[in-house]
Design brief:
The structure is a single chain. The protein is an alpha+beta fold. It has one domain. The chain is 68% helix and 17% strand. α1 packs across α2. The termini are far apart.
């Protein structure tokens, strides 16, 4: 079955961006727009004299950095946690 697409408008920094996205992915796009707007507001408060372009670049770097850090941390720590769980399950099964 083919997934349904929907047209949405995202507001980022007061600019409307019309997009066509998978219906199942719409919430993620809306969350992403909120994240960008929230971070942009914080950067505007802290660096009021900077241009919108520079502030948007700072937001992009911030989000990309956090994504890379989370990916690296969650990838290794989740795998380690899962391996420990599986090892414990194997040990428990072997003891029975």
């Amino acid at each position: 079955m083919e997934e349904e697409y929907v047209g949405i408008n995202l507001m980022v920094n007061g600019i409307s961006y019309p997009l066509v996205v998978r219906r199942s992915e719409e919430p993620y796009y809306r969350q992403a727009a909120r994240l960008i707007n929230d971070k942009l507001l914080k950067y505007k408060e802290r660096f009021a004299s900077e241009s919108d372009e520079k502030l948007m670049a700072m937001v992009a770097i911030d989000i990309a950095f956090r994504r890379m850090k989370d990916t690296n941390l969650s990838g290794t720590s989740r795998i380690s946690e899962r391996l420990l769980e599986l090892t414990k399950q194997i040990d428990d099964t072997l003891e029975k």
